[in-house]
Amino acid sequence: MVKKFSDNMLSQLYLGLAADYKALSKKSPALTPEQIYWTLYFKVYGELANSNSAFHELDYEGQGKTWAVFNAFIASTPLYKNNFAQLQQFRREQAIKDKLKKKQSVIFIIDSEPYCRHNVFFDWAMLNLYFSSLHAHHHHGGWRGSHHHGHSSSDSINGEGLAFLILVVLVLIAAVLACLALYYMLSQTLNSLERFVWNEGWLQAFITLSSMAACTAAGAVLGMLVVASPLSALILAAGINNPVGLVIFTTVCLSLALGALGCFATNALQKHLLKDKDAIDPMDACRFQLTDSEIDHLWELGLDPITIKCAITALREQMGEEPVPSLLNRLFTTHGKEKQALLAQVRQLRRGELEEITVDDMTFNLRRPQVMIPAYYYDAGNQAYVYHTANLYPQFNVPQQGVYMDSSHQHGHASMKPLSPELPPPYPAEGQQPFYNATAPSFG
């Protein structure tokens, strides 16, 4: 079955390239930039032929996006950010074939695992699979002590005193629960308003606010109809003549507690129902996605949506495995402020306010390069690699009758042996010269 290239596959490809790039950069003796480039190039190349990889059955458009992610990643790395002009130098198909024949001299096997396996659901809790050597997790176990204070009954405590003691305990519990519920409801209200303002999931925000209001109202009704009578009796038994104030206070506390509980349950259900396995962050898809209107706006500004998605993935990786914290947490804690700064950059990227951004040691040039890219695309139907000229962007692709290459491979890697005579690549139209993007910077 032909698959589409999803944002989740983009994020896995980017993270896999980032992990391999860091591993190659730390090798001793140090590898040359060109060796690192070609190692990553053929890792992606073999990924398209690996039957265990989700990239194996991508259509031409999806494979084109795969190479666009690769190009965006390479152009953003420290080794290449100062050589971006060299990446734009045009080359002929023969340059690729020369490298294919010499690949054994520059390829360093990193691992045989694909970046994106079939039927493996990725979310950001799995981030350590890509950077296990970079993010060490230490789990400290401990026993939580519990202290039990026994209260022996006394014959001197009469029924009224016991009722008063029970009432005090209930009021204190209600007050504590109400304070916690009020904080949680305030936090969720601010989170929902933030989603409305920044268009980060208005439906999720609306459901959260609606469930909060409905459960709070239900709690008030339940308090008046069910709790008021027995509570009044307890108050009178404790020797208090006017129970109205305490009944109203307890009912308000109960309504707040049930409102927070209903909101919590609704949010948990939404995380399960609104989970998008194709998104950059499946558990919070709307916050890190580009809508169709945003993509059109980025095109109008001359920016590259694929590179912007790579930058968003890099920013999401900087946030760590945990979900994005609440707005209050991001406003009033040091760790939260760091994540708020990263989230603000994501929003700038979505609005097209940046033409370049640096994330950690990666520098992303977000402008759209108007170049054509020559590539070998894997045709699952013919089980062969087909060469044709296509733009980095599918809407400008010019499908061609390609040159096929042998796809027989072992362990999921293509042999890349030419089967056709040495012919120049086809032209997009009569009299029109095809353009070629550089496949690697020249360091010699």
How would you portray this structure in words?
- The protein has 444 residues and is mainly alpha-helical.
- Helices cover 49% and strands 7% of the residues.
- The chain has twelve helices and seven strands.
- The strands form three sheets. It has a three-stranded antiparallel sheet with strand order 3-4-5.
- Strand 1 and strand 2 form a beta hairpin.
- Helix 1 packs parallel to helix 3, helix 6 runs antiparallel to helix 7 and helix 6 crosses helix 8.
- The protein is elongated and about 85 Å long.
Please give the structural blueprint:
Elements: H1 7-25, H2 33-47, H3 60-76, H4 84-87, H5 93-101, H6 159-198, H7 202-237, H8 244-273, H9 292-300, H10 305-319, H11 327-332, H12 334-351, E1 356-359, E2 362-365, E3 372-379, E4 384-391, E5 403-406, E6 409-410, E7 413-414
Antiparallel strand pairs: 1-2, 3-4, 4-5, 6-7
Radius of gyration: 30 Å
As a percent range, the share of helical residues equals 40-55%
For the biggest sheet, the summary is: 3 strands, antiparallel
- Number of DSSP-assigned strands: 7
Span from first to last CA? 43 Å
Round the mean pLDDT to the nearest integer and report it: 77
As laid out across the biggest beta sheet, the strand order is 3-4-5
Strand content: 5-15%
Helix and strand succession?
Answer: HHHHHHHHHHHHEEEEEEE
Class inferred from helices and paired strands: mainly alpha
Count of structural domains: 2
Helix count? Answer: 12
- Contiguous low-pLDDT stretches (5 residues minimum) are 87-94, 133-156, 389-444
Any idea what the shape is? elongated
Keywords: Membrane, Transmembrane, Transmembrane helix
Transmembrane segments: 162-186, 207-240, 246-269
Biased composition (Polar residues): 434-444
Region (Disordered): 406-444
